[in-house]
Write a structure and sequence with these properties.
single chain; 139 residues; alpha+beta; Trna Endonuclease, Chain: A, domain 1; 4-stranded mixed sheet; 4 strands; 12% strand
Length: 139
């Protein structure tokens, strides 16, 4: 079964991140940045499920509009990065735009990327910002 183009693009982004982790020391990102980049995860909101699985997922907290990829690593002036991935002529839904706007207004970098190349460029730009030092709370 062929993958949908958006899923293929997302896989390419994750593979790029994994490749960054495997580069020899001295190449690519320094260790602390690699550790940040390794936190990237997918939300799989667009995954097709059965009617029962979709019902249970909504009951368990799945929300419309949540971006596809999340990097919970503070950089520059942002608390983290959210990426809504689109391919070809794909356009974000109203819920996706509203969610991205809500995240942006709360200090997150939340953007739409077109294709895997767009998402990788966004990740590279985000990673170029200085690491934000956050003091962990005790306990």
């Amino acid at each position: 079964m062929a993958l949908k183009p958006e899923m293929q693009a997302q896989i390419e982004v994750i593979q790029w991140v994994k490749k960054q982790q495997q580069l020899p020391p001295g190449e690519g990102y320094p260790p602390e940045d690699r550790a940040d980049l390794a936190l990237l995860y997918a939300t799989f909101n667009g995954l097709f499920t059965s009617r029962q699985q979709a019902f249970n997922a909504k009951r368990a907290g799945l929300r419309r509009g949540v971006p596809d990829l999340v990097l919970p690593a503070p950089r520059g002036r942002w608390y983290g990065l959210y990426i809504e991935l689109k391919v070809g002529r794909g356009k974000p839904s109203r819920e996706q735009v509203e969610y991205l706007d809500a995240l942006s207004s709360r200090g997150y970098r939340a953007e739409i990327a077109v294709g895997s190349a767009g998402a990788i460029a966004l990740l590279e730009d985000y990673m170029a910002a200085p690491r934000l030092r956050v003091q962990a709370s005790p306990g």
